Amino acid sequence: MYKVIDIIEPDFGCEGLPDGQEICCEVILESENGRLSVKMPDAELYRQEIDIGSSVSYRNGIIEKIK
Quick one: CA dihedral 65, 25, 40, 36, positive or negative? Predict the structure, then answer.
């Protein structure tokens, strides 16, 4: 089990998001074994209601909120 300790949204500056590209955030996870950084689509974070402080599982490159 991991805890989300930060979500870093990309900054595209004045150029904006390139056409056809999905916005991905850097999600910083922490467990008793340390920290790790994972990229996750912003839309998926909203869909699962994952925010800073959420408890999540991380397996095979996939983050899932623990309810």
Answer: negative
Q: How far apart are CA 5 and CA 22, in angstroms?
A: 23
Q: Which two tokens stand for residue 45?
A: 């974070």
Q: 66, 55 in Cβ contact below 8 A?
A: yes
Alpha helices in the chain (DSSP H): 42-47
Rounded to whole angstroms, the Cα distance separating 38 from 24 reads 10
Q: 44: phi > 0 → left, psi -120 to 50 → alpha, else beta; which?
A: alpha
The whole-number pLDDT of residue 37 equals 96
pLDDT tens for each residue of 1-58: 999 999 998 766 666 666 667 788 999 999 999 999 999 999 999 999 999 999 999 9
Cα 64 versus chain centre, distance: 10
